[in-house]
Design brief:
Blueprint: H1 25-37, E1 41-49, E2 52-59, E3 61-63, E4 68-69, E5 76-77, H2 82-95, H3 120-124, H4 149-158, H5 173-187, H6 191-203, E6 209-210, E7 224-227, E8 230-233, E9 248-250, H7 252-263, H8 270-277, E10 288-292, E11 295-304, E12 307-314, E13 319-328, H9 332-343, H10 362-365, E14 370-373, E15 380-386, E16 389-394, E17 399-401, E18 403-404, E19 409-412, E20 417-423, E21 429-438, E22 441-447
Antiparallel strand pairs: 1-2, 1-13, 3-4, 5-9, 6-9, 7-8, 10-11, 11-12, 12-13, 14-15, 14-22, 15-16, 16-17, 18-19, 19-20, 20-21, 21-22
């Protein structure tokens, strides 16, 4: 899973008030209808408050070819959200004294480089140094093929360590594939059976299981990429490969039930949950922090093929939000933020995707180049021109290619960012100052 920050992900703390959610449903429906109308997403969303469904919305198609629409019961591949399930199984086994956080990987798989130094804890929080085999360029040559456990173990063992155990943290799917295998070793059963016994059946998750070949007749979604003004089906990863790192399928409703149960102590004890939430270089053990202004939650995201998902739980408000997508040409983080804006009755805009962008000559674009800062938020944004386009880059963040609406307005639609340079009474652009609008916030930036 990749994490991208779009300028305002660090927003300063403000006061929020817990309020009823239903009053903003109509506008939220308009928001999702707009995403559907302009082919920005195909997805399903669910919001739970205190274990009660508060909102649900599905847009797009589970199968474009068969004209089968997504609905609340459609199963999506959830990718790395599977890691929270695997971490939960590991902590259940720890509570049963079948292993510990300090147990070495060498107890199970001694041929993995540094296995005698790597602990279960380091695998859980991605500080093991085990190279992620899915990052190798050759992965795309076999990801659609069925592999045995022996095959996968050999592939992981063939890579040199990315770094020494505990030296730093770096996301690696190999960690959770191995943790899934360890669950099987200790339980003497296949992963799917253990998952069913310990989580799925216990919680009544009727639309969650270890995935296989996609079956649209069983209300399972294919994934798509939008190319040449149409949704084009993506090839399927063979689910023998991602295992405990990303092989599960589910619905947003089931994901909300799972995360609520996890945080309400129905799956692991308080000590285990605390460990899962404890951060090391920004990584929890099967969980990631999800901050939103003054509130903070935990959850996980996932990506496999063209499926992208996000699940979040905000314990103070007993609020669970899950989004599963099978086609996405927009920011998933922006969608989550919009749902949160609606829930907390904060202002948000419905994006206008009908706007036509224009080309601006490079000589004109050069006038916008510079470093800008705002007294409202602690970040500087650098504007530069590359390959005939204007880019904006916040401190420590990726560069964003901006689209021009006019000579005074630029946008980055994936994150709902609008940048407006001001004009004087004569209509002349002031290149030394602009307004940045995102998520209902307006921030003034001036050239340094």
């Amino acid at each position: 899973m990749k994490h991208y920050k779009y300028f305002l992900s660090f927003l300063v703390t403000i006061c929020l008030f817990t309020v009823s959610y239903g009053q903003d449903t109509a506008k939220l429906n308009q928001y999702f209808d707009q995403l559907a109308k302009f082919n920005k997403a195909m997805l399903s969303v669910s919001v739970y408050k205190k274990n009660v469904p508060m909102y649900a919305k599905s847009i797009g198609y589970a199968s474009v070819e068969q004209n089968l629409k997504n609905n609340a019961e459609t199963k999506f591949r959830i990718g790395s959200i599977s890691k929270t399930f695997t971490a939960t199984l590991i902590f259940q086994l720890i509570e049963e004294k079948k292993l510990s956080l300090e147990t070495k990987l060498s107890k199970f798989y001694s041929k993995i480089p540094n296995a005698d130094k790597i602990t279960i804890a380091q695998m859980l929080n991605h500080s093991s140094g085990i190279y992620s085999f899915t990052s190798d360029e050759n992965y795309l040559t076999y990801y659609q093929s069925e592999l045995s456990k022996k095959d996968i173990l050999q592939k992981i063992a063939n890579f040199k360590p990315a770094f020494q155990p505990g030296e730093k943290s770096e996301y690696s799917n190999s960690n959770y594939v191995l943790l899934g295998f360890i669950v099987e070793e200790l339980s003497k059963k296949p992963y799917n059976e253990i998952l069913n016994e310990r989580i799925i059946t216990k919680l009544g998750l009727t639309r969650t299981n270890y995935g296989g070949a996609i079956k649209p007749e069983s209300n399972e979604a294919f994934s798509y990429k939008f190319i040449d003004n149409k949704w084009v089906k993506e090839p399927e990863t063979n689910m023998s490969i991602p295992g405990g790192a990303g092989a599960l399928v589910s619905t947003p409703s089931d994901l909300n039930k799972f995360y609520a149960a996890l945080f309400q102590g129905k799956l692991v004890g308080e000590t285990s949950l605390t460990e899962m939430k404890t951060l090391n270089n920004g990584f929890g053990k099967g969980l990631f922090p999800i901050p939103f202004f003054a509130v903070s939650g935990f959850g996980h995201g996932g990506s496999i093929d063209r499926f992208n998902s996000q699940a979040a739980y905000f314990a103070n408000d007993s609020l669970a939000i899950s989004i599963t997508t099978n086609g996405l040409e927009y920011s998933l983080n922006e969608i989550l933020k919009t749902i949160l804006f609606a829930y907390y009755k904060m202002p948000f805009e419905i994006p206008d995707f009908s706007i036509q962008f224009i080309d601006i000559p490079v000589a004109e674009l050069e006038k916008y180049v510079g470093i800008f800062a705002s007294p409202q938020i602690p970040i500087k944004i650098t504007f530069f021109v590359s390959e005939g386009k204007l880019f904006a880059q916040g401190d420590g963040q990726q560069a964003l290619k901006l689209d021009a609406v006019s000579t005074s307005e630029f946008r980055f639609e994936q994150a709902g960012i609008v940048i407006q340079f001001q004009k004087n009474a004569a209509g002349e652009i002031n290149y030394s100052e602009f307004l940045l609008k995102q998520g209902g916030g307006v921030f003034n930036f001036k050239k340094q």
